[in-house]
User: What shape does this take?
Amino acid sequence: MIGQIDSIFFDYGGTLFDYYPSNTEIWAKIANRLGVPIQPEDPRIREGLRLQSQEFDKIDKEFRELSEDELHRLNCFVLAAMGVDVERSREIVNAEFIAREQGKMFQIYPDATETLRQIKQKGIKIGLLSNVGRRMASSRRPSLQEYGILRYFNAIILSAEVGVWKPDKKIFELALREIGTTNPGEAIHVGDSLKADVRGARNAGLIPVFFDPLDLHSSENVIKIKALSEVLQYL
Assistant: This one.
């Protein structure tokens, strides 16, 4: 237990919803296209993603702010770990990730619905707090409706609609006002980004919970969960 909790916010992509295809599936497909037979569960992919994440954490930028060259440099950590020819990879990597953006792109995590149901049953208010560009913002509420979870949310705060992005303290303050929580210390924020979610929530006075399903990061003095249902033990 971490004290009285009045509300809990969840990030969208990478938290309530996994990417579709998943990152490990995308990287396995890229490696196979480049002549390296590999399966999504291969530990080389996880190691590459771990190294990539460590390097990204050193950069004082959000993901959306990275240049193409910076993004390629980060991708090279995964490519090198898989034993892929980096020089031939750039166009294929871009094509696979663009194809995902143009497709379904997200699928709900298996335990998300039941976790939300149990939180609501405890009388705790639930919010969605998501960094999302204007092009994709319109799909957020319909996707929650499609998966039957829209009814669990008391507030939905999207960066494109409010004009502020995590980790800016202002978006967390907006979220607290919208959901009706006056004490930030009685609110949890669950997200998969150390920069946007953990540090942003902590700076705004909320309790950060870091969602790290592949266990890529050290704890950084934060509550870390590998499945959404694990958050229930802190309520």
Notes: The domain at 7-16+109-234 is CATH 3.40.50.1000 (Rossmann fold).
